[in-house]
Amino acid sequence: MKNALLIVIFALFPVVSGAQNKSIQLVLENKTNQQVNDYVVEIPASILKKLTIGEYIAQSGNEIVPIEIVTDLKGNLKGIFPVASFKPHEIKKVEIKQGTTPQYPKRTYAELSHRIGGNPKDFRYDKKDTVYTWVKPNYMKLPGSFRDHALYIKYEGPGWESDMAAFRFYLDQRNAIDVFGKKTPGIILPQVGIDGYENYHKSAVSHWGVDNMTVGNSLGIGSIAYWDGQKAIRVENRDSVECFVQADGKIRSQIMTTYFGWNIDDTKYNLKSLISIDAGSRTSHMELQVDKNIPNLATGFIKKKDTELLVNNDENSIWSYIATWGKQSNEDIKKYQQESNMMGLAIFVRTKQIKEITSDKLNHVIVLEPENGYVEYYFMPVWEFDWQPVATKTDFQHRIDEVLTRLNNPINIK
Questions:
Q1: What CATH architecture is 7-102?
Q2: pTM over 0.85
Q3: Nearest C-alpha neighbor of 61 from the set 89, 27, 86, 95
Q4: Any residues with CB less than 8 A from the CB of 62 and at least 6 apart, and which?
Q5: What is the mean pLDDT of the chain?
Q6: Which position among 33, 132, 163, 176 has the lowest Cβ density within 10 Å, counted as fewest Cβ atoms?
């Protein structure tokens, strides 16, 4: 691919007196003629074993950022740190050492909160029950019988966000992912869903933003599904579900969910899902692992009549995408604003895992072929009233191309 992003890390381990090294020197190189912003570098956490045990920082010139330890769905430990920008063909020298960066802002967040108090029955509150308060255990296990609009979970499920985008999914039988439009780079989710249970999508746009997407019976954006040959079926029929916040960091936040006994054609599956979001990114990363082969695992997003479908399924590209652009934001917003409320939705998948790109009455769908039960994909929304707005199709295509370039050219470590 022309002008492809390639950042190479050369890890040098200098000999230092004593049992352990005092620092690790890295050289990061952008070999393209493209500017790269807000890049989260990943290194094997095992590299950090060469340092004294403690907290770590990465320093390049006067820029000092924290290093966080995270885990992917396969259990691989990684050290991650953000790089604000690379100029075209720029080489950066980075030193990793022990230290802290309390001044570095929190740029991602995840939560799972619910009510306590009052008189709930089977995780459900009556609308007249106003004696309650909120707690944030960041963990819940619910039976498969748990249903929507129980007035129990804050905005009906877990939420996660970066400084660029915010999401939630319904932790009930709908299991669909929804989007919040952000009018500020600050953390917003602690404010959502506490001033009236549903005011965040039934009232005017607030200072932080709004629930700017209609989901209904669709896949929302990036929801997990099964393709039965005619329609996408969400993870609705299951024995139980367990969900918790795996990471709530400054650089990356993660939601882990296990669906026990997902019933598809009288066969039950256990499915694990890990959703991750990084500082400076609009995309969420979905990893899925199923204990048995599901031939038609699928994802997708809502279909709207006033949108244009964009598809790139190039066999020479490691990653491909489907996207839509048009007037597809929440109808409630239009009651309070006269603007067109343009939105873009995109999903990026590994090209070799694509079985079919199709649609049903409600959704644009990508049918996927898991590898040893594993699938990963990314999903991204944009809105013309975000604090960094994407207001035209051309601008949206530019954002898509940026993500595709990064995915096709991951960081190389030598």
A1: Sandwich (2.60)
A2: yes
A3: 95
A4: none
A5: 89
A6: 33
